[in-house]
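Justification of resources, computational component.

The compute hours requested in this renewal are based largely on the per-chain cost of generating structure records like the one below. Each record pairs the submitted sequence with a full structure-token output. That output is archived, and it is also reused by downstream analysis tasks.
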Amino acid sequence: MDLPLAWQRFLDAARQRVRVDFRVGVYLVFGVLAFIVLLPIAVVRLLQGRVVLAALEAVVIVAIFGMLRHAWRGGDLDRLGIAATVLITSAGCAIAALSPIGLFWLFPIVMAGAFLAPTWLSLPTCLGVMAFLWWQGETLKALGEPLAVLAAMGVNGVFAAIFAHHAGERRAHLEQLATRDALTGAENRRAMDEALAIALQAVRRGGRTPAMVILDLDHFKAINDRFGHEAGDRVLRDFTRIVQESTRSCDRLFRFGGEEFVLLIEHADARAVEGAFARLQAALRDGLVLGDGTVTVSGGAALPVAGDKVDGWLGRADAALYEAKAAGRDRLVVAPPP
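The structure output for this chain reads:
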């Protein structure tokens, strides 16, 4: 059965986001469970007159939807994972203290925390939950076999942390193979297409405005002809290193093809782009010398506008790059708004 077009678009966007970072998928699962499980339970609690418990569960539901929204909008998932683990674990302990049956929610909460937060937090969080249950006492007494419950909780937390750690390493390795250029170590065209699409989505939702700069090494063919392809490859690797060292950690460099690269600068206007390019030029003069001269770069920059598509954004940056080359190279041209 064919899905409605809106749902199909949503599912396609969700698959794309999860491919970029699987933690977005964890928040999506949390959101679905909050809607189809926690929300009905909170309503039942309210109808039963257990107002405090219903209110606490409502707070958890609102927090989960807020975290899902932040993750979907491209927020910092590392910080969000830490905050989510602390918040949801604290709420789970409070619910377990109010209702012994709530203890069973702590098992998936501890497991999810292993995937959302780093190991240095997830394992102490599991131990903290066990210590709280032992100190509180009443919840374990109500269910009986307190040592068995605590042992199961500890095993659950340890195995989840181990699995999450190895899965994260495996994912990072596979992502590097799939999204990194083998020669330079810069991200490749596939990663660039995904990053630009996500950046435009963030712009449409009112997020931070990024800037794109297409960088082209000047007279690169002459470098290959004069010094050989091995020297040319070394220039490409050194250029990648210098760009990454002279830009912020949140900025991303992609190899567009040949001697062309795309630099995605987060939260930037035309002045910030010009400043970043000037720093790059200075770094190249100091660090990329070949033969009797330095290697220079030309740049074409463009800022996204409302309703922009990736091709249109790239096209404006490419046209600006052409102007920079025609004007004598070793310079930056920022495309005017369309």
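Strands lie at 211-217, 252-257, 260-265, 289-290, 293-294, 297-302, 332-334. The longest helix spans residues 146-179.
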